[in-house]
Amino acid sequence: MQLRYAFRLYPQPGQRAALARAFGCARVVFNDAVRAREDARKADQPFPTAAELSRKLITEAKQTAGRSWLGEVSAVVLQQSLRDAETAYRNFFASLKGTRRGPKLGPPRFRSRRDARQSVRFTANARWSITDSGRLNLPKIGAVKVKWSRTLPATPSSVTVIKDAAGRYFASFVIDTDPTADTTRMPETDRSIGIDLGLAHFAVLSDGTKIDSPRFLRRAEKKLKKTQRELSRKQKGSKNRAKARLMVARAHTKVADARREFHHQLSTRLIRENQGIAVEDLSVAGLARTRLAKSVHDAGWSTFVNMLEYKAQRYGRTFVKIGRFEPTSQVCSTCGVKDGPKPLNVREWTCSACGTVHDRDHNAAINVKQAAGPAVPACGAPVGPEPVLAQREETGSHGSPPDTRAA
Question: Residues 302-315, buried b or exposed e (16+ Cβ, 10 A)?
Answer without folding.
Answer: ebbbbbbbbbbbbb
